[in-house]
Amino acid sequence: MNIHSLFILNKTGACIYNINITSDFENIEPNLITPFFSAIFSFSENVISKQNPEVLEMGGFRIVFKVHNDYILAILADSSASLLFVNSRLSNIAKAFDDFLLYNEIEEFEIIENESFNIKIKTIIAGEEELEFSQALFRKIIDHMKKLMMQDEIIGSALFAINGNVIFSSLPHEILMSSLKELEIRNIVANEFDLTFYSLENNQKIFSKMIDIPWKLDPLIIVVLFANTPLGMAEVLLEKIANTIQNII
Question: Is the N or the C terminus of the chain less surrounded, counting Cβ atoms within 10 Å?
């Protein structure tokens, strides 16, 4: 898990809610961290944009901020966490927080302690609801990718949305993370190329391709890990896999 903690601050910079997703920061008092956020906000009004989340990189961590009405949402994550995925988590958390405020009145400095809200936040950060829905929706595609692995045509594969949400993966963790990072970079520079590949030191090849599915508005990204397959053959197999996915449902 790359996301460690979520903080919700009011407009004065006071932390009214926090939850630890991993144990890495569970022994750290939130009030020791959040004044740092408040100091940043006071330093410059331009640090936090009301339109888009902002990012601070600190060593091996990144803090992603989002202004939402009179509140500031902040996620603490590893620097390896996909920024696209973290941003999508913040957007979904903002919606869940709005729903919570509809039925729960909180004072300016009140600390939110609500187990149902905790469960909702954990579900959003894990992407469980979307993953469950996506896996059901894309079950035929996932089954096809698993079949290719069983037939030794590929070593592993992954399918994810352009917001970084992983629908399915059988890739080694480090390759999945590098693929998400690549997606993040391509999104930042608006790369129009829909196919990329690179070779590992052991001669394995990693291909990624953007796939348009007729009934889905947003394209998907497929990543395939090949063994010592010749470059031309791997590209042919990838195209075959992409065509099958586009027509499988």
Answer: N
